[in-house]
Design goal:
Helix 4 (82-109) packs parallel to helix 14 (327-358) and helix 16 (374-388) packs parallel to helix 19 (492-510). By secondary structure, the chain is mainly α. It has helices spanning 5-8, 13-27, 32-60, 82-109, 119-135, 139-157, 163-194, 199-205, 211-229, 238-241, 247-272, 279-298, 303-323, 327-358, 369-372, 374-388, 394-409, 412-441, 492-510, 512-528, 530-537; strands at residues 63-66, 77-80, 461-464, 467-470.
Length: 543
Amino acid sequence: MTMDFSLVSIAPLPVVLPFLGAALAFLLIRKPALQRRISTAVLSLTLLIEVVLLFSTWEHGAQAVHLGGWAPPFGITLVVDRLSSLMLVVSTAVSLAVLIYATGQGQVDGDEDAPVSIFHPTYLILVAGVSNAFLAGDLFNLYVGFEILLTASYVLMTLGGSGPRIRAGVTYVVVSVISSLLFLLTIGMIYAATGSINMADLAIKLENLDSGMQLTLHLMLLVAFGVKAAVFPLSFWLPDSYPTAPAPVTAVFAGLLTKVGVYAMFRTETLLFPGDRINDLLMLVALLTMIVGILGALAQSDIRRLLSFTLVSHIGFMVFGLAMSSVAGLGAAVFYVVHHIIVQTSLFLVSGLIERRGGTANVDKLGGLARLSPLLAVLYFVPAMNLAGIPPFSGFLGKLGLLQAGVDLGTGTAYVLVIGSVVTSLLTLLAMARVWNRAFWRRPVDAIDPDPVLLLPVSAVKWQGTAPVITGTDADDDDDGMSDSNSAGLSWAMVGSTIALVALGLAVTLLAGPLVEFSNLAAQDMLDRTPYIEAVFGEGAGQ
């Protein structure tokens, strides 16, 4: 496969640039304004490079870079194929939006001094770890990517040092360390059995192992990745860990960290252990993840906990697509991953705006937000309906693709998953509508212990910085609840980045045709395996 070397050589930059940016941001730890500019510029440049790689893989297919000139399977290999390039673009776009939101929140809160000043270098290290995981061409480098992003996530989760955050961080650390140790143990066993950890090399060598050893290694990897992806019953840690972190941190965790685990499952099932040997098990896991997750969401009154349970639930849709082992099913799963990263992150950012505007994220204590802030109502409604799968949004298109693939598969288990997917979608709509009705349309007087500001006429409240000022006049009744850039502790950086992310979710709907085509090409490459192996070893290696 002929490649433009200058284009291939930029593949490491999505990892290198955030690391360099983190180092520079750390040196400027006492200059938060420069930190913000550097972080934003680094992620913007990284996103531009990843878009170039995306179009390159669309046209030419998989590409590989062998660092240090070491021929595979020795040394470190980075592989950019259609799946990894798509994940890179989406993850960095979302990370950039969340970064802008976080910097706006920091400016409003005045959190520009330590320890919050370490946010920017830590955040960039998180992005570097995510990118490294997507590009890793060997299992150990994938492990390193996980550890980089997990180490950064420990810091971000406990930022501020409050009791609930420390407790949640301890649970998160313990679970993550256990899954990482299992992953590392499996890598050692694979190396002992095959003499290699290069994934393209393992795609060939693992087939020579006896079936019992293959199954053991296969299940060990899936358990390790299942913890990171938060599939049932390995998802117990997530709903208690994510909601305690600051809103932007929770948003990027929800959008990206579990999807790195899903990405690793995609690689395991298609490249290392192809076939349908454990597909029924995966379908059972997918069904339980969907149903248990959404039932947990219905029992929540806190919006961020509710969203954490829907996050778990909708991982089941991705596992369902993976378990079908077909181009249609896997392609729909890839499309759904893209949709879910954007929409779930949007909803967590909106929940942060709701908490600031209404004084709480508890739906039992909220009411009248549609009157107080129509813009906020729109920002919630659009991604909420998208997540629920209401036509014509991308959530509907992704679920429709999964349902069609399940019907085409025609097995009894697939039909059960189709029914489970429909039920989960309806219950997701119910959960989203419950927040919509209570927080936005219910009268504030019907809420339990509402914030006093919610009980006042819109025209009677003006804002100075983060504090409400009661004017007692009906003048200037054209306030939509967002006209003041600092209203209720909000800034236009926070609101604008949320609007941009909601718009990106709508763009996925408008560009669904090309995106579905690209997702199907990515699925075809994964199931074929030859493009990946040939990118690493050269033409003819995958035959």
